[in-house]
Amino acid sequence: MALISSDRLRFPCEPWKLVENIHVPGDEGTLETLFALGNGHLGIRGSHSTAGDSELPGTFINGFHEIWDIKHAENAYGFARTGQRIVYVPDANNFTVSIDGEALSLAESTVLDYYRSVDFSTGVYEESTTYACRSGATVTTVERRAVGFDNRGCLGLELSVSADRDVSADIISGVVNRQDQPVEDHSVHDPRRSGRHAGRVLLPLHLQGADGSLRMAWETSESRQRVAMAVDHWISAEGQPFETLVAEDESSVRYVLAIHAGEAFRVEKTVSYLVAGSSDAEDRGESLAADAEANLVSFSEILAQSKAHYDQYWTTSDISIGGQPEMQQAVRWGLFQLAQATARAGVAGIPAKGVSGSGYEGHYFWDQEIYLLPYLTYTNPCGARKVLESRHAMLPDARVRAKELSVDGALFPWRTINGLEASAYYAAGTAQFHIAAAIAFAANRYQWASGDASFRGELGADLLIETARMWASLGFFGKDGMFHIHGVTGPDEYTAVVNDNLYTNVMARFNLRAAAALEHEGIADTERMVWRQAAERMSLPYDPHLEVFSQDNDFMTLEPWDWNTPKSKYPLLLNFHPLVIYRHQVLKQADTVLAMFLQWQDFTAEEKQRAFDFYDPITTGDSTLSACVQGIMAAEVGYGDVALQHFTDALFIDLDNSHGNTIDGVHIASTGGIWSSLVCGFAGMRDQGDVLRFDPRLPVEWEDLSFRLKVQGRLLSVELAQGSIALALESGPDYSDEPLRITVRDYDVTVGTETVTVPLDSVPVPPPSIFPSVFPTAGLPIIR
To answer: Cα 775 to the chain's mean position, in Å?
Structure first.
């Protein structure tokens, strides 16, 4: 059921905000995700601060996790041994307001007026509620929140209380350890959701508090990571707190005072988090808490940092859509989420949910390289490099893992936080060797788009070489003289452990070619020759009967899925045993189609169209990674209506909670796919060739589309209108104005600071492919 798009009275369409101005019980968990704040390092869910009004509140720090021994029902050599899960850090977003003895809440009090918003232009969350109290007073509470950027571990919270008459107020500001609260293990019912630990996770190291200030530190039970927090309070009235209480799971600062009519009592709560590995056993957390204290800044400074960051961010990262206000709002919300997931992550991976929730355990997947790094590479190249640096830091563990699976080079984990494989189900985890090519592809794209020579010669070369070595040893030259890769799972997890998955082979071919092209002293001549031969002889399954590239060697022999399956049975992974799904022709997400998008130069227009026509109808979209890719390829093929429909589906995945699990955090990879849908789909950008290319497909319903790209030290402005594309380099102290060669369809243009406009003809819609029967005998009469 749609949420944001279905109720514009409750969620009005604002170009630079997400707004809720009517409170309706029942959507709290989803809205906690949609209103979350973060900076890539620290994230806080958009929960109401009153305990009874929230569903899944929490605060997260990227990479702060607990581990445990995975208990396999039937063990085997090489299975993942250690589970990893992001940990809720102690949460400061807790206020209780009692007026004349009545505790105010959305659930229990009489609400006269309600409004909350998150402002994309400043990064500030604001919530205002007016209550009719039983004492006769009308009371308004206003809350504001923001996270720091220069001080990435800092969080600012502000509460203001005012009344129309003199009232007695009792206000409690709390810090709660949510990780060790008794909560249902959601993963029992849905593997996409985060599970819970059996024992206590956060062990208190240092607990100190007085006069409204808290200094505390904890250590995780098994991973031995430490988190400290410093909390200070400032109030607009004179006097000290009524009491300051400190405990391992719940600490509080309490104010009891009179609030006079027409006056506002304001409390500012500033928080600083700091994480570290286990240190000297003699240090019980005091020094870490002291370091957290040293990083504290005022609430006004946190607001200023947030605003300054977004002022700069939107200058180069905004994407404008003409004449489509609801899509424009949704696109900006998505771009805002991408910034919140990545801006200050540092040298770290990007979790599948960013820092907006605990879904997928806070793990890093291939999603970040294929779906997120295109956005980062062209809007925040320094951020892209840091993600790749984090992968490079995993190389020692990846080399060990490769030996464990009897291959050379490096084998990166399918899902991880600390660099070790955490996927307990190998068929849909470890068997997805294509993550190696995703990392190589992202490294190659970054160095192509950024011109970062030092990366290419060092980190980039290591990533390309070690992954190429893995492919060369994983595959083999068969009797037919072709290079085969067997026993793998491609992006489509509804078809597992197959031979010659097309996507895997196409991306491995790219990986081998890119590594073979390197001038590097660590590559022997014989090794380079093997890589080139493996790439040139790569087996790409093809069905001559259908004239379509097959997803794998056996996919075309599978039984078609029963498409009369009711919608209540989707996603299939929650309703059918994996073996049932594996036996049928049905896709969780785009697989062959994705290969043709990423390796666009290797396939003809006809091959792409026939593949899209064949696979699109049998793709369930059970994965949030699918719609954006299907839309991009529909646009390239010329199916404008289909492209727009897929794009719209992707755009509102979280805003409308269309997959039913937005409660667990923003689908960051899908959000990155929205960026690619606009830039690579409707603007038709393709890279990593001789020059940057554009082949636009602007929807007929749109007036225009404009964005900027950071390309090889330049800032490129792109403006699409119906019938034309305008390109120019923007001047600035951080950008070169050296002309850039670009191809627009069949036109070669040199773009400088003067705008170059290229006229565009409309793209005809091709007739759809007509396929013979999948099974040649399907039409034969039954012989009796």
So the answer is: 40
Active-site residue (options: 32, 158, 466, 493): 493
Backbone phi, psi, residue 384, to 5°: -60, -45
Examine the pLDDT at 558 and tell me if it is beyond 70: yes
Tokens 């789909």 label which residue? 681
Strand partners, 706: 320, 719
Is position 636 annotated as part of the catalytic site? Answer: no
Over the chain, what is the mean pLDDT?
95
* Integer Cα distance of 750 and 51 in angstroms: 59
Query: Which residues are CB-neighbours of 303 under 8 A, at least 6 positions away?
Result: 122, 124, 144, 146, 156
Q: Which of 90, 109, 89, 84 is nearest to 99 (CA)?
A: 109
- Do the bridges between strand 692-694 and strand 740-744 make them parallel or antiparallel, or are there none, so unpaired? parallel
| DSSP strand pairing (756-759 vs 724-729) | antiparallel
Collect all residues with Cβ–Cβ distance below 8 Å to 20 and sequence separation of at least 6: 10, 11, 31, 35, 114, 115, 116, 117
Cis peptide before 12 (omega within 30 of 0): no
β strands within 503-562, DSSP E: 542-543, 548-549, 559-560
CA–CA separation, 671 vs 379, rounded Å?
A: 14
Q: Are 507 and 599 in contact (CB under 8 A)?
A: yes
Q: Which position has the token pair 């646009």?
A: 635
Q: Judging by DSSP bridges, how do beta strands 704-711 and 692-694 pair with one another?
A: unpaired
What is the C-alpha separation between 415 and 341, in angstroms, rounded?
A: 18
Q: Positive or negative CA dihedral for 629, 630, 631, 633?
A: positive
Segment 271-319, tens digit of pLDDT? 999 999 876 566 779 999 999 999 999 999 999 999 999 999 999 999 9
DSSP reduced 3-state for 697: coil
Q: Name residues whose C-beta falls within 8 Å of residue 581's C-beta, 6 or more positions apart in sequence.
A: 494, 572, 573
Q: What is the pLDDT of residues 665-703, one digit of tens each?
A: 999 999 999 999 999 999 999 999 999 999 999 999 999
Rounded CA separation 775/755 (Å)? 54
In 100-137 the beta strands, taken as DSSP E runs, fall at: 102-103, 110-119, 124-132
Question: Residues 169, 99: contact at Cβ < 8 Å?
Answer: yes
- What does DSSP assign to residue 457? I
Euclidean distance between CA atoms 484 and 527, whole angstroms = 17
Q: Are 136 and 165 in contact (CB under 8 A)?
A: yes
Nearest in space to 39 (alpha carbons), one of 157, 158, 176, 150: 150
Q: What is the pLDDT of residues 487-520, one digit of tens each?
A: 999 999 999 999 999 999 999 999 999 999 999 9
pLDDT at position 779 = 37
189: Cβ contacts below 8 Å, ≥ 6 apart? none
Write down the pLDDT at residue 14. 97
